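Exercise: predict the fold of this chain.
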Amino acid sequence: MNRPPIRVLVVDDSLVLRELLADIIDAEPGFTVVAKARDGQDALKKVEQHRPDVVTLDVQMPRMDGLETLDAILASNPVPVIMVSALTARDTDVTLQALDRGAMDYIEKPKDLKTSQDDFRRQLIPKMRAVAGADVRRILRIRRTKKQRRRQRPLQHHEGSERTGELTERYAGCCIAIGISTGGPPALATLFQSLVLPLPPIVIVQHMPANFTGPFARRLDSISAVSVKEATTGDLLRPNCAYVAPGGRHLSLRPGPQGIITRVKDGEPVSGHKPSVDVMMQSAADRFGASCLGVIMTGMGHDGVEGCRLIRAAGGYVLGQDQATSDVYGMNRAAYVAGHVDEQFALDDLATLIPRKCLELFGNAKPAGVR
């Protein structure tokens, strides 16, 4: 039996881009554009009139900007929204706010309308297919819980703990490797808001464009006891620090004169992505073996499945986010079904689960440099 097509509303104040998006979507089997809107006010009328399955929403528009329009859509007719963002500092900040408020995903505007259409289509169509039919009301409830938690004062390290210094030294020879995609920014904000020190070094692949990862890392750093930065080649992995893979480049790890350091490089997409979770996790498994804790979280696709397998094959341990708290139960589901996840978790439990697992798995490890 043929499924009905996914019905899309395209919202953009640029007539040229509005028509381009509509043409790309209409040309794809299984999709149809039910309406086009020139601004936020027009979008609200057409959401009510057509009840689309997915909305693509421009970030910067006259009369009502993307954030105002998003809030109004989700308040009246919750529907999956994909933000369409230019790679400017302003658009990046607004897009990150939109993800926090309930947008399902985002995509870069085509850099060149003549040469970038195919690449734009390859990114947009899977994103729309992944979010169509999502229970947006459930996701909004999850996001509200995340916001409430982030309003609380961040937890600090255990002052006066006799083992804090000892664990910090031991954790220098360990690693936490996190892979995440759709739904990742608010999920990681929830996690980092509440993480308690000491912790091993953390390496993160969040599927994001190049101009997004730096501001995103700074956002995490501002709300967390963990020191967070966008990774650059040569960063020495240190306990209580996190390193976010730059958008559009792979992150791997290699030995340096004082310990394990990061390597950022270009290359072909792996498992459909650049940066790739599989590239990072394979490298973490190679460098840390049984002293690696893998964490696979919300996101569409299969990136990270092979990485989780390799971490476990090297003697490490893998945690996987459960379906109930995932915006998109995709990457984590694939890893779990394949048998590469040791334990599933609810998002709200992860900030306490990670320190507990690190203590259980690595608390008696020899300090770095003793092996």
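Check your answer against the key: Confidence is low (pLDDT under 50) at residues 153-160.
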